[in-house]
């Protein structure tokens, strides 16, 4: 394993999970929320968030929502349901296909927009359950996805708290092992499942094991691409590609821009 990647994943995950769990319970009590709701895909990130939430709060204050579509493999649903049941967390399974079909009756066809619509339908359902229970929504984005904008704006990117926002994908995988998440989930290739055969690393065009050290040097160490490339023994063009993804996705990590220039301070 390359040295920089080894450094990233060689962490005290007992300490890290404890810190995240205290942050979750601290925020939940400060916000007077009765609990947390999280979308369960049967993938790595949501499984880790579920476990951290169940550790941080009583499992009875955590609600998991499994929302398969026609592009969700059955084994993902099985993994999500089994995991929630093993933690004693309540869950609902809601098939979002009828909703997608209704949209398809009035919208033009587009593969990517339909995928993003899935993420936004799921967001609506999570907030519905947050509303009726007095809960808040736990998002599952990790630092890799957040920094390159690999999420649907106002879809899976919409949440009230982001428990694993400080951890790169490779670190989330290592944390999952520490937390005892089943191997069938830990070893699953990351996928948004927004269309058939959709794989994250394929769409991004880079493996997380290569991208995370680049992100670390650019984002945390604030290194210039040339220096980062030299440090990692990679072509500078590869580092620049990651830098480009960070820059073009800035709008996804910011509040909508108030383009009006009206200044009320003179009234
Ligand atoms: N400069 C700018 N300033 C302000 N807003 C800007 C903008 N550029 C685009 N936008 C807006 O952003 C929209 C594009 O963003 P968005 O709608 O998110 O769409 P987009 O970024 O094109 O697609 C979402 C990507 O995230 C991936 N994803 C989604 C969900 C989950 C996961 C996962 O890892 O599980 C991954 C998905 O596979 C896809 O590659 C534009 O239609 C426009 O409305
Ligand atoms: N079928 C689904 N049911 C419920 N929630 C879902 C479903 N698909 C996606 N989500 C929600 O959207 C989030 C983003 O998906 P994403 O694929 O990034 O995460 P993941 O599946 O948990 O992990 P990985 O990124 O490793 O695949 C999920 O963590 C989950 O909260
Ligand atoms: Mg996934």
From TrEMBL:
Gene3D superfamilies: HUPs
One annotated GO biological process: NAD+ biosynthetic process
EC number: 6.3.1.5
Positions of ATP binding: 39-46, 140, 169, 191
Enzyme class, UniProt record, top EC level: ligase
Positions that bind deamido-NAD(+): 120, 153, 160, 251-252
CDD domains in the cross-refs: NAD_synthase (cd00553)
Family: Belongs to the NAD synthetase family.
Protein name: NH(3)-dependent NAD(+) synthetase
């Amino acid at each position: 394993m390359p040295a920089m990647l080894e450094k990233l994943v060689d962490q005290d995950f007992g300490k890290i999970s404890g810190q995240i769990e205290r942050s979750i319970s601290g925020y939940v009590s400060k916000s007077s929320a009765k609990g947390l709701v999280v979308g369960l895909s049967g993938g790595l990130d949501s499984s880790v968030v579920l476990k951290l939430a169940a550790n941080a709060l009583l499992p009875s204050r955590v609600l998991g929502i499994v929302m398969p579509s026609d592009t969700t493999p059955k084994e993902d649903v099985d993994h999500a349901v089994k995991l929630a049941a093993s933690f004693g967390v309540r869950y609902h399974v809601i098939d979002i296909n009828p909703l997608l079909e209704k949209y398809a009756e009035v919208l033009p066809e587009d593969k990517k927009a339909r995928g993003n619509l899935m993420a936004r339908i799921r967001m609506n359902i999570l907030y519905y359950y947050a509303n009726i229970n007095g809960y808040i929504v736990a998002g599952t984005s990790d630092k890799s996805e957040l920094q390159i904008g690999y999420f649907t704006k106002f879809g899976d990117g919409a949440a009230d708290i982001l428990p694993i926002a400080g951890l790169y994908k490779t670190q989330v995988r290592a944390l999952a092992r520490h937390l005892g998440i089943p191997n069938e989930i830990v070893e699953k290739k990351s996928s948004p499942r927004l269309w058939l055969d959709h794989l994250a690393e394929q769409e991004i065009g880079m493996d997380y094991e290569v991208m995370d050290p680049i992100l670390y040097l650019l984002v945390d160490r604030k290194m210039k691409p040339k220096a980062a490339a030299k440090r990692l023994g990679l072509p500078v063009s590869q580092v620049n590609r990651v830098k480009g993804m960070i820059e073009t996705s800035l709008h996804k990590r910011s509040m909508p821009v108030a383009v009006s220039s009206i200044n009320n301070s003179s009234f």
